[in-house]
């Protein structure tokens, strides 16, 4: 993939992220009165280590998922613009997958389908479709971050398009096979899906390998910048978990801050690696 082709894709991703933000933002504000009813009919609290800790002390708030969605989509829009400007003339195979990870946050807007369902009495099929879009975005995001780390550690694939299709196809297979309850959701407006424990372990394992791969890259390539990129990847994974599963006010803004700090580490030090190439 040439620099020009990659930059064109970046522009397309920026456009997608802003369109989703505008559409979801307008819709979300118009159905704001429905949010308390959505929370009242939740099946359980949202999952995650940080959410589990907060569940003992605070009750869920119906407007936190809305704030979480908007923060996630704003993060996607702003960060994509920064990545484009920062790497416009700098070639880096890893940054394309980092950008896919960032873009995946735009698909968090699909959670808006839950309050829409209650307001307009939509069929459960729409909730299931929206949930598969949400899961697709989340798994594409974590797999893209993983592939970026593997590239840094020494993976040699000349055509990035091959790896992109592998990510998309494998994620489609996973999300297509996950059973989803079209009538139940948690406190973060996510539909209840099957095998949650197994997928949390899988996601945790991928996250661990991702961080370790960046550390391996620092040793194998003799570039200490990858140590800070590995630390940044740990931060973005932590911030992502806090932000996307938030159902109380103590989670979304600290999660967004940690996510942004981690992204700054990744982009800054990745740019230094390729600055003189």
Outline of this structure?
With 277 residues, the chain is mainly α. Helix content is 72%, strand content 3%. It has helices spanning 3-30, 35-40, 49-55, 64-87, 93-103, 113-120, 124-153, 160-177, 196-220, 225-244, 252-274, and strands at 180-185, 191-193.
Structure description:
This protein has 277 residues and is mainly alpha-helical. The protein is built from eleven helices and two strands. It has a two-stranded antiparallel sheet with strand order 1-2. The protein starts with a helix and ends with a helix. The mean pLDDT is 89.
List low-pLDDT spans: none
Number of strands: 2
Look at the helices and sheets and give the structural class.
mainly alpha
The termini sit apart by 16 Å
**How much beta, percentage-wise?**
under 5%
Average pLDDT number: 89
Shape: globular
**Biggest beta sheet summary:** 2 strands, antiparallel
Q: How do the strands of the widest beta sheet line up side by side?
A: 1-2
List the helices and strands and how they pair.
Blueprint lengths: L2 H28 L4 H6 L8 H7 L8 H24 L5 H11 L9 H8 L3 H30 L6 H18 L2 E6 L5 E3 L2 H25 L4 H20 L7 H23 L3
Antiparallel strand pairs: 1-2
Helix pairs in contact: 1-4, 1-5, 4-5, 4-11, 5-7, 7-8, 7-9, 7-10, 9-10, 10-11
Kindly list the characteristics that best describe this protein.
277 residues; 3% strand; mainly alpha; 72% helix; single chain; globular; two-stranded antiparallel ribbon
